[in-house]
Design goal:
Blueprint: H1 4-23, H2 29-41, E1 67-73, E2 79-82, E3 90-93, H3 103-117, H4 126-132, H5 138-149, H6 160-180, H7 190-199, E4 203-208, H8 212-223, H9 225-230, E5 231-235, H10 247-256, E6 263-267, H11 270-278, E7 282-286, E8 301-303, H12 316-328
Parallel strand pairs: 3-4, 3-6, 4-5, 6-7, 7-8
Antiparallel strand pairs: 1-2
Helix pairs in contact: 1-2, 1-12, 3-6, 5-6, 6-8
Length: 329
């Protein structure tokens, strides 16, 4: 089931679970019934901007953002509940497979064209490239491949690093041609989620193992100059170790001056989830063509895509609810 109603129901189920965890055995059945009534029977909760909570940003009331404050019972025996904003400090996107499903018909095709131009008898088919994606980074991917099947006879051991760098540069040029001509459209829901975050003052960044030039082009061409100007990009060799190492997300948190536990990451791969969770961040998966069968047991939530209304799977409110769950846990 998809759509706005689905996302609303998922958030409410999550919030009920939070309330149960928070109050544990102290919560009466009457109190639970009151909460259910508020969430499901009375969706239009009065809003206010006077509330504030140390961990969470903002402080605006919303029917789908809940933190329970136990310790006091009203005179009628009902539990006192407070609903507050839990906006992330930063929303961090992977690029390939998250912003755009680039891998099979973008990067793979560009690698093969670069190999062909170089006169190499190498062609990465769909299945092989899917396996190679377990290695983070294009240069690292090629190095891993040639270490396994053997290097071209004309490439001396001392030349291997430069050989791979040259191939990768040409592959990037070919990939850029695909990007600039708009042949790789955004995945559903990406633009609307970014707009939600920027409108609420949440910092947005892209954290990718791909070449910085290619990532910047995708953001500029696919998202437009206005969004691109508001987004920070961390990509390529900006860190010495690539995903699944957490370095790129740690760098993003430091540069943006935010706490890792207040960041929400959107990833599409197992190595991406591993990287985000090792950095101490909440991670939502949007599966891509190559990663749909990977292990996402460490992720905080998994969806086929973000989705645009009326087929929206989640939004900024849902990301906020995951932050609350982590904090209360």
């Amino acid at each position: 089931m998809c759509g706005t109603g689905c996302a609303q129901a998922q958030r409410c189920v999550c919030l009920l679970r939070l309330w149960k965890q928070f109050c544990n055995s102290a919560m009466s059945m009457a109190g639970m019934a009151t909460l259910q009534s508020v969430l499901f029977a009375s969706p239009a909760v009065t809003t206010s901007s006077s509330s504030n909570c140390g961990f969470f940003r903002g402080g605006k009331f919303s029917s789908c953002r809940l933190v329970a404050h136990a310790g006091r019972l009203q005179r009628n025996g009902a539990w006192r509940m407070k609903v507050v904003s839990a906006l992330p400090d930063a929303l961090l996107f992977d690029c390939d497979g998250v912003l755009v499903d680039t891998e099979r018909d973008g990067h793979r095709i560009s690698f093969n064209k670069a190999f062909e131009e170089k006169g190499l008898q190498v062609a990465w088919d769909v299945a092989l490239y899917g396996k190679l994606l377990e290695i983070g980074g294009g240069k690292e991917r090629m190095t891993h491949y040639f270490n396994g099947v053997g290097w071209p006879a004309s490439v001396e051991e001392a030349q291997r690093k430069d050989f791979v760098a040259g191939l990768h540069k040409r592959k990037t040029d070919l990939f850029m041609d695909l990007v600039e001509t708009g042949q790789l459209p955004l995945r559903p829901g990406v633009a609307s989620l970014i707009d939600q975050a920027l409108d609420k003052g949440v910092q947005v960044a892209v954290c990718s193992t791909s070449n910085e030039r290619a990532v910047s082009a995708i953001v500029r061409v696919m998202l437009g100059d206005k969004r691109a100007a508001a987004m920070k990009i961390f990509a390529g060799d900006v860190v010495p170790k690539k995903k699944p190492d957490p370095a790129i997300y740690q760098l993003a948190a430091t540069t943006l001056n935010v706490q890792p536990e207040k960041c929400v990451v959107i990833e599409d791969s197992h190595i991406g989830v591993t990287s985000a969770k090792a950095a101490g961040m909440v991670c939502i998966v949007t599966k891509s063509g190559y990663t749909e069968n990977e292990d996402f047991s460490e992720a905080d939530a998994v969806f086929p895509c973000i989705g645009d209304p009326p087929s929206q799977n989640f939004d900024l409110d849902f990301a906020s609810s995951l932050l609350m769950e982590k904090k209360l846990a």
